[in-house]
């Protein structure tokens, strides 16, 4: 009998491509909003795998869905369809504006499909010259070469050679800049309805309305990247539902599978008909296992009580973070919506978001950053009051260690 040697953090440096710099601890087990590492140390999870673990770790509904489907069928090519994919697609159309769904494996792939659809529709209906994509500075749309180019952070796309062309970046929340630039050559405007990686920046109501109106004026499609904001994260099933406008195309991933990899592009019947057989595809897109788990997630998250609970939990976090700020005076504001929140550091704490993350980890709390100056919180949508209070108490100790 072969005895497997235990893996350690140092093994990462030996066998993994070094595009990540993971923490020293290795989590091995999770329940709800708590995880335990190899040494048995407990952590409260305010990170949620970067807005992924919307029902926490090992939620019984998800576990049952995976086990049930795991004993039926795991994979089919898209030469045929499968029951979980059809059920999930139907449910997504019921909770959104969409008529049609394309399944992928990640947010980047969902965004790739969205961008390809926008370009194909414009070319089919208006001609090849209508190809410009407008996106926004500090936006983030994935790591494929197309999506990272559309994303508004050049540091992520520089250094890989010539980039896909006809992509323009404008300031977020700047109506005048958009109005001055958009034209009949613009095929699509792509935006996050609440910027995540860029620092948890909410749009003004006026900006969102103007984007929709300008897209209509110039026959451009509006693409909402709801990879991070979707599936209940803001307290609406999709964030657009709380903004009073409707996009033409929407991408969703992260929380959609609650931790099981899956992404989807949602759109209307009018647009979908331009993606004819052979124009796009995915080997694993619509995988039965992934769709079965996501179906269970959608069933839970779309419950009105769960969505109302997100707004209740937002209040718990805001109240707790304000209390800590009154004590330590480090945040200039708490921004965001629902359980996609960012605590922006004030002038005295500039550049220290990672210090807070590390100190929190030392106290048994997992948080995130969104740039150098924002501490980000994206916990489970069903995190308990006890877990929130315990996590905030650990954050208190972490901040105390930084000021003492």
UniProtKB/TrEMBL annotation:
Gene Ontology CC: cytoplasm
Transmembrane segments: none
Keywords for this protein: Amino-acid biosynthesis, Aminotransferase, Arginine biosynthesis, Cytoplasm, Pyridoxal phosphate, Transferase
CC cofactor: pyridoxal 5'-phosphate
Record's catalysed reaction(s): N(2)-acetyl-L-ornithine + 2-oxoglutarate = N-acetyl-L-glutamate 5-semialdehyde + L-glutamate
Positions bearing N6-(pyridoxal phosphate)lysine: 254
GO annotation (BP), single: L-arginine biosynthetic process
UniProt binding sites for N(2)-acetyl-L-ornithine: 143, 282
Keyword Transferase: yes
Principal cellular location given in the protein's record: cytoplasm
Record-given protein name: Acetylornithine aminotransferase
Oligomeric form and interacting partners: Homodimer.
GO function terms (MF aspect): identical protein binding; N2-acetyl-L-ornithine:2-oxoglutarate 5-aminotransferase activity; pyridoxal phosphate binding
Pathway linked to the protein: Amino-acid biosynthesis; L-arginine biosynthesis; N(2)-acetyl-L-ornithine from L-glutamate: step 4/4
Note: May also have succinyldiaminopimelate aminotransferase activity, thus carrying out the corresponding step in lysine biosynthesis.
The keyword Cytoplasm belongs to this UniProt entry's keyword annotation: yes
Pfam families: Aminotran_3 (PF00202)
PROSITE patterns: AA_TRANSFER_CLASS_3
């Amino acid at each position: 009998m072969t005895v497997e040697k235990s893996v350690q953090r140092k093994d990462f440096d030996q066998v993994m491509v070094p595009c990540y710099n993971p923490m020293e601890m290795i989590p091995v087990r999770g329940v709800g909003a708590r995880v335990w590492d190899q040494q048995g140390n407990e952590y409260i999870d305010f990170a949620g795998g970067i807005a992924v673990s919307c029902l926490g770790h090992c939620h019984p509904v998800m576990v049952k869905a995976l086990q049930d489907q795991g004993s039926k069928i795991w994979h089919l090519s898209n030469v045929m369809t499968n029951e979980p994919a059809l059920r999930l697609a139907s449910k997504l159309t019921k909770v959104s504006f969409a008529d049609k769904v394309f399944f992928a494996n990640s947010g980047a792939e969902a965004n790739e499909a969205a961008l390809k659809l926008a370009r194909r529709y414009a070319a089919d209906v208006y001609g090849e010259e209508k190809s410009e994509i407008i996106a926004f500075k500090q936006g983030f749309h994935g790591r494929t070469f197309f999506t990272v180019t559309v994303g508004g952070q050049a540091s992520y796309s520089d250094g890989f050679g010539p980039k896909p062309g006809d992509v323009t970046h404008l300031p977020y929340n700047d109506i005048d800049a958009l109005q001055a630039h958009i034209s009949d050559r613009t095929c699509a405007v792509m935006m996050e309805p609440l910027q995540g990686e860029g620092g948890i920046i909410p749009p003004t109501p006026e900006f969102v309305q103007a984007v929709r109106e300008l897209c209509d004026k110039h026959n451009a499609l509006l693409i909402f990247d709801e990879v991070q904001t979707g599936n209940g994260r803001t307290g609406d099933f999709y964030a657009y539902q709380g903004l009073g406008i409707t996009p033409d195309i929407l991408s969703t991933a992260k929380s959609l599978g609650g931790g099981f990899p899956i992404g989807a592009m949602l759109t209307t019947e009018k647009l979908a008909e331009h993606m004819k057989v052979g124009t796009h595809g995915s080997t694993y897109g619509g995988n039965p296992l992934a769709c079965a788990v996501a179906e269970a997630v959608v069933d839970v998250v779309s419950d009105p009580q769960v969505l109302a609970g997100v707004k209740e939990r937002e209040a718990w976090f805001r109240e707790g973070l304000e209390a800590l700020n009154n004590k330590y005076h480090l945040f200039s504001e708490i921004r965001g919506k629902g359980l996609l929140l960012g605590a922006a550091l004030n002038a005295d704490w500039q550049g220290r978001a990672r210090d807070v993350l590390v100190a929190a980890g030392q106290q048994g709390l997992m948080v995130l950053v969104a740039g150098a100056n924002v501490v980000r919180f994206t916990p489970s949508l069903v995190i308990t009051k006890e877990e929130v209070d315990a996590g905030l108490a650990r954050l208190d100790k972490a901040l105390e260690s930084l000021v003492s």
